[in-house]
Every structure is written in structure tokens, then in C-alpha cells.
């Protein structure tokens, strides 16, 4: 009976290790968090890196110059004056222990799922892209970036036609 119990315990340990490896975050799963934590961590001096309070001060300064998705992450963590909540301790303490960005982002995701929902916008090279292969959402984004509309566009082909009409105004090919 004891040997069956020992085998069962070993199987459970192996399963938990495998599940832990499978559930580990990949950089593409939480790209904004990974990049911001890495960038911020690399900007810290050795004397600041040891003190969580100093790390929090530096993160607030770091966030003042942030834009777009990085600014949104700062908001979620409490690095901005207008942040509604703050979980900066979940960033500063692990950083003071030299924890890698992947693990810090895993911990932050457990506190607030929105942190890993942030994604950088894809850049689309309109000189080489096949518009037919893009999603309608991406076609709409192109028009929106150009501050243009597509009145009466109902189908993907309508959006493609409108982009093709406007391309000469917005894309200047080099000779």
C-alpha cells in the first residue's frame, strides 16, 4: 500500500511540474509588461535596485514620460498620479530581489488580468502588404490612422478600394 501511495505522490509532483512549465508566460503573451519591466529594470542603478521604496519612486518618474500602451500599464500598476489603484509593491519587491521580468509579469497578471491584455499595435508596411490578407479591423485602423473614413463601406473589398484610392496621398514611394 505504501508503494502505491509513493508512486501516486511522484506522479502528482511530475504533473504539477509539467503544468507549471506549460502555464509559464511567454513574452508574446504579455509583451507590453515584459518590455516595460525589462526597460525599467535596466535603467535602475545598483543602489536603487536594492530598495523597494526607491524603485517605486523611480517607476513613477519613468511613467511620467510613457505613452500609449506603456502609459496604460503604468496606470494599472499605480505609477501615475491619476491611477485608481496601486500594486507597485508587486513590482518593486520582486525587482529588489532581482526576479526576472517574466516572473514579475506572471505575478502581476495574477493581481490584474488586464496587464497581459495590453498589446503593441502591429505596424503594417503598406508598400508591401497584400491588403486582401488583412482583417477588416486592420483595414479600418489604416484609415483611422490617416484620419479618413469609408462612408458606405460594408464589405472588406469596399475598405480595400478606399485604401487603394487614398494610398497615393499617404504613401510616397521613393524613386
UniProtKB/TrEMBL annotation:
Pfam families: ARMET_C (PF10208), ARMET_N (PF20145)
Position of the signal peptide: 1-24
Domain ARMET C-terminal: 128-170
KW Signal (keyword) present: yes
Keyword Chaperone among record annotations: no
Protein's cellular compartments: Secreted
Name of protein: Mesencephalic astrocyte-derived neurotrophic factor homolog
Gene3D superfamilies in UniProt: SAP domain, Saposin-like
Organism in which the protein naturally occurs: Frankliniella occidentalis (Western flower thrips)
Biological role: Required during the maturation of the embryonic nervous system for maintenance of neuronal and cuticular connectivity. Essential for maintenance of dopaminergic neurons and dopamine levels.
Domain ARMET N-terminal, chain residue ranges per copy: 29-124
Main localization category: secreted
GO BP term, pick one: dopaminergic neuron differentiation
GO cellular component: endoplasmic reticulum; extracellular space
Keyword annotations from UniProtKB, A to Z: Developmental protein, Disulfide bond, Secreted, Signal
Family affiliation: Belongs to the ARMET family.
Superkingdom of the organism of origin: Eukaryota
Amino acid at each position: 500500500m505504501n508503494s502505491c501511495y509513493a508512486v501516486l505522490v511522484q506522479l502528482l509532483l511530475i504533473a504539477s511540474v509539467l503544468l507549471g512549465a506549460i502555464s509559464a508566460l511567454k513574452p508574446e503573451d504579455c509583451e507590453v509588461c515584459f518590455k516595460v519591466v525589462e526597460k525599467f529594470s535596466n535603467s535602475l542603478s545598483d543602489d536603487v535596485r536594492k530598495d523597494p521604496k526607491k524603485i517605486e519612486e523611480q517607476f513613477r518618474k519613468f511613467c511620467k514620460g510613457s505613452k500609449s500602451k506603456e502609459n496604460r500599464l503604468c496606470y494599472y500598476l499605480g505609477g501615475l498620479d491619476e491611477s485608481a489603484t496601486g500594486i507597485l509593491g508587486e513590482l518593486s519587491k520582486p525587482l529588489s530581489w532581482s526576479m526576472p521580468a517574466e516572473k514579475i509579469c506572471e505575478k502581476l497578471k495574477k493581481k490584474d488580468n488586464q496587464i497581459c491584455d495590453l498589446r503593441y499595435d502591429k505596424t503594417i508596411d503598406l508598400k508591401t502588404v497584400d491588403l486582401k490578407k488583412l482583417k477588416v479591423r486592420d483595414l479600418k485602423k489604416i484609415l483611422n490612422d490617416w484620419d479618413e473614413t469609408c462612408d458606405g463601406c460594408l464589405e472588406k473589398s469596399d475598405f480595400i478600394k478606399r485604401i487603394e484610392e487614398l494610398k497615393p496621398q499617404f504613401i510616397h514611394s521613393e524613386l
